[in-house]
Design a protein that fits this description.
Layout lengths: L4 H22 L13 H17 L6 H31 L1 H11 L7 H31 L29
Length: 172
């Protein structure tokens, strides 16, 4: 498995779980403000995936590595949200409530509540990718403490191998 995909799968799975739990919790009217965490979860998951990647990487991680791992995390978490969280939101919220709110603002709005819910889910998916990428970029300076190339230099031939000491052939 790709060394960037494994941390992204772990953190993306956690992100998807947190997003689905947030959908379930926000159905309770007193806990509606918990939905604000939907912007915090992707940043935290992107940073977490970067931490996993840095721990298992043999070379120092760069900002590009953090961005890639963070974006993969957002894609995985967003897909889980689209497949599981959006249908739950559809059944808990009800399309009629969304449609009624839209019709109060603009009575002639051409889209229905179900279409708006789907568009909102797709926009949320893209926002999760962007925020997870930001989290991955934030995680690099926090978790990567190695500087430059830490691989040891290649051994030098001090033993006088073929050709004598220093690699020069003796004169005859």
């Amino acid at each position: 498995m790709n060394n960037k995909l494994k941390p992204a799968l772990m953190a993306g799975g956690l992100l998807g779980l947190l997003l689905v739990l947030t959908v379930l919790v926000t159905a309770i009217p007193a806990l509606g403000l918990v939905g604000c965490c939907n912007c915090l979860w992707p940043i935290a998951a992107g940073s977490l995936a970067t931490m996993f990647y840095v721990r298992n990487s043999t070379t120092p991680a760069t900002a590009v590595d953090g961005a890639i791992v963070g974006a993969l995390t957002g894609v995985i978490g967003g897909l889980i949200y689209l497949v599981i969280g959006l249908p739950i939101s559809y059944f808990l919220t009800g399309v009629e409530a969304i449609d009624m709110q839209v019709r109060q603002l603009t009575p002639d709005f051409p889209l229905s509540g179900a279409v708006l819910l789907l568009i909102g889910g797709l926009v949320g998916f893209l926002v999760f990718i962007v925020l997870s990428t930001v989290g991955g970029l934030i995680g690099i300076p926090i978790f990567e403490k190695r500087k430059g190339d830490t691989t040891p230099p290649p051994p030098q031939n001090f033993g006088g191998g073929p050709g004598g000491p220093g690699g020069y052939a003796p004169r005859v």
